Automatic annotation (TrEMBL):
EC category: transferase
Positions spanned in the full protein: 260 to 520 of 520
MF (Gene Ontology): phosphorelay sensor kinase activity
Protein name: histidine kinase
Transmembrane segments: none
Keyword Kinase found: yes
Reactions it catalyzes: ATP + protein L-histidine = ADP + protein N-phospho-L-histidine
Enzyme Commission designation: 2.7.13.3
Origin: domain of life: Bacteria
Keywords: Kinase, Membrane, Phosphoprotein, Transferase, Two-component regulatory system
Length: 261
């Protein structure tokens, strides 16, 4: 048996205790593995019933198509149930992704596609459900990338949802797709919302990190989105940059290598 001394860090990366025996290390490892297995099990088990609830809601919605008094009263309630179920589905898929990353099971299905088109589709999607939002897209060129289209769409939607969520008043978003250098393309998502302080900017890509304060109660979320986006972009050999000023807004940029063929 080797005797090691190991620092135990909390989720903020601070060392809060030291352990020194190999059995303790073994126990901790087992505990961590159990937690990961639990996360995987729970998210898988939740996915099936919630997906089935969504199916039934859609069925009921199609049955209340006729314009009579009772259906008119029911419709807004059904819409609310549908929205809440969507939120649950989103959360469960974030938990599943988290578990995939932790178990090194996140697979990328790379294909070649036009990045401008993907951004436009994500914007159309977002505008369909958020009609009070104004989004401008600016691009100079066509950009072909070799990447996992669904995963990049997930990243794009995550930046857009955050830009809207953390902009309580001015929901005006600018997007720019630009050639960063001869090998890479950048996508900039700029909002005019709350902004993020320099101190918080250092932590926002950590899992479960959320800016403290009124933020926490007012805006729903679990602090997983940016962690996942960062992992996805890094696995494509890209990078994420953030600039921000409290009270003025934030700018997130993600980059991807260009497909040169
Ligand atoms: P969530 O939004 O679910 O909390 P994220 O990982 O997407 O999780 O973001 C982490 C935190 O970073 C958020 O809780 C929020 O405080 C901050 N944040 C992210 N995007 C923005 C933005 N565009 N403007 C201001 N704050 C942001």
């Amino acid at each position: 048996h080797l005797c090691q001394v190991t620092a135990i860090k909390d989720e903020h990366g601070q060392v809060n205790s030291w352990i020194s025996s190999s059995t303790e290390i073994q126990q901790l490892k087992e505990e961590e593995e159990k937690q990961e297995a639990f996360l995987k099990l729970v998210s898988h088990e939740l996915k099936t019933p919630v997906t089935s609830i969504k199916g039934y809601i859609q069925l009921i919605q199609s049955m209340t198509g006729k314009e009579n008094e009772q259906n008119k009263t029911l419709k807004p309630y059904l819409k609310r149930v549908e929205d809440q179920v969507e939120r649950l589905i989103h959360l469960i898929s974030e938990m599943l992704d988290l578990s995939r990353i932790e178990q090194n099971e996140l697979e990328l299905n790379k294909t070649e596609f036009d990045l401008n088109r993907l951004v436009e589709e994500a914007v159309e999607d977002i505008c369909y459900t958020n009609q009070e939002v104004r989004i401008n897209i600016h691009h100079e060129d066509e950009f072909q990338v070799l990447a996992d289209r669904n995963r990049i769409e997930q990243v794009m939607l995550n930046f857009l949802t955050n830009a809207i969520k953390y902009s309580p008043e001015n929901k005006h978003i600018d997007i720019r797709i630009f050639k960063r250098d001869k090998n890479s393309v950048g996508v900039k998502i700029k909002d005019h919302g709350l902004g993020i302080s320099r101190k918080d900017r250092q932590h926002i890509f950590r899992r479960f990190f959320r800016v403290e304060g009124k933020n926490q109660d007012t805006y729903s979320g679990f602090g997983i989105g940016l962690y996942l986006s960062n992992e996805i972009i890094e696995r494509h050999n890209g990078k994420i940059f953030v600039k921000s000023k409290v009270g003025e807004g934030s700018e997130f940029i993600f980059t991807l290598p260009l497909n040169q063929n």
